[in-house]
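SEQUENCE, C-ALPHA CELLS:
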Amino acid sequence: MAEKTVNYTPEQTAQILEGYAKGVPVELLAAELGKTVRSVVAKLSREGVYRKKEYVSKTGERPVRKDATADEIGALAGLSEGEIDSLTKANKTALLKVLATLKGELPPPPDVIRV
C-alpha cells in the first residue's frame, strides 16, 4: 500500500493556524509557505477555523434582500401576501425609504399632505 504524502507538516499547520488567528491574510500565509491560496483555505477549513469573507455592498453595508424589506413593510402596514408580493417589484431604494419612514427613522417629506 502506498504511503500518503503529507502536504502540510505539523509546524506548517501550526504556523497557518497561528497566523490566521492573528488576522494575517490568507494570501500572505500562502506566499510564506509556497502554497496556493486555495490550498491554505482548504487546510484552514479542514482544521475548522476558516470563515469566508462576508459580502458587503458598495457602501460597505451587509446587503438586505428586497423581498425581506417588502415582508417587513407588509408586516408594519398590515398588508396581505399578494400586496407584499407586488411590493417586491418596486425599486429597492424606494422600499428602504418607505421602511425607514414607517419605522420613524426618516421624517415624511415636507410636501406630503396629512389627512
Observations:
- The radius of gyration is 25 Å.
